[in-house]
């Protein structure tokens, strides 16, 4: 069949790659803007609770299944199934994961393309090319197509390199760069007038909002999106981990890095919004709510950078470069989902599988761009609010009900001899069997009813 499977060369390499997948636009854009529009620290609190109680256990299910089967999600789920029905269930969940990952990548590339355009714009402006710089930051079909294409090409080049020389190598280069840029930006923004109001809004909870049901739905969606769950991404990364590693610790590190970067991004974006206000930029809409989501990133922050003169150009460049880097280490993990399937189950050479997958995803991106107003929001809602939680549920059912507990323990014991008596093993089996499915279902039903 195919060439020998790839494997991460070290523990650190895996952590950077998986954290690279987790840390993306979801952390630097989604988390701060959702926090801004959902009562600040109240959302933060809910997000933390849900990440530890539901998302981390679900992440562990994917990592354990992946490393046990050493295969993509379709093969992996089938291999732990114990009946014809569960094998069929595994196939359906695996294929649905591949489709969902591809759809997520199709809109993610569009947004990431905007980030590239926005980090190039200040460079052109500095060089005196004002008109092209403005063109880059204005919404337009051709700009959208061009930059989604550029971003996808970067993703393809990295995935073509394989696990060690593509995913691991580039995650190890880009993740430290991301952290450095983020820290420099925070240090700078916190010195500006108004920043402390933002820090307060971010860290002091408005508890009247914390038990708000829509807030819980958003927080769970954010937690699942941020840890790249439910589509087989973490399963396939798990399948590239050596049997010598302790899985529960690795999963814990990835979760902690993901949360930390989201918190840091909040410490950048929330203060920046209030600095913008101090500089005369409108930050509340007509309902008195904080402006959020795309308007925040593409209107409020650029307006803030505009008030800063030359410094603003550098800050703007650094901010959107940060976004681009974060997006790239995530997009590669999405493309790896269909690519690994095509390579392993259809014996396709990696470069051919990469080209085929990215072409199909590219066509979907083009269709979305050409029908932007009707499709963009729809595809995002369909994949992140419906498919991801439902598929996450499927993984929990496999980890909690279908796969035998003893086999799971045997897999965990590889690289973690004391697994049986660990705190993790005292809690996780119960969690993945009852709490996670119930939690996901409760939130999902809430979503359907609302
Ligand atoms: N977690 C990434 C972010 O926060 C996005 C991401 C990467 C993703 N792979 C995924 C989301 C798989 C869902 C499924 O931006």
List the helices and strands and how they pair.
Elements: H1 11-22, H2 25-37, H3 41-69, H4 73-80, H5 84-126, H6 130-137, H7 141-160, H8 162-190, H9 195-203, H10 213-226, H11 233-239, H12 247-278, H13 293-306, H14 309-346, H15 350-370, H16 372-402, H17 405-413, H18 423-449
Helix pairs in contact: 1-8, 1-12, 1-14, 2-10, 2-12, 3-4, 3-10, 3-11, 3-12, 3-16, 3-18, 4-5, 5-6, 5-7, 5-14, 5-15, 5-16, 7-8, 7-14, 7-15, 8-12, 8-14, 9-12, 10-18, 11-14, 12-13, 13-14, 14-15, 15-16, 16-18
The structure holds tryptophan.
Our measurement of the CA-to-CA distance between the termini, rounded to an integer number of angstroms, reads 49 Å
The ligands found in this model are: tryptophan
Return the string of H and E elements.
HHHHHHHHHHHHHHHHHH
Overall geometric form: globular
How many strand segments? 0
Number of helices: 18
Write down the overall mean pLDDT.
Answer: 93
What portion of the residues fall into strands of 2 or more residues?
Answer: under 5%
Rg of Cα set: 21 Å
Low-confidence stretches: none
Category by helix and strand content? mainly alpha
Helix content: over 70%
What characterizes the major β-sheet? none
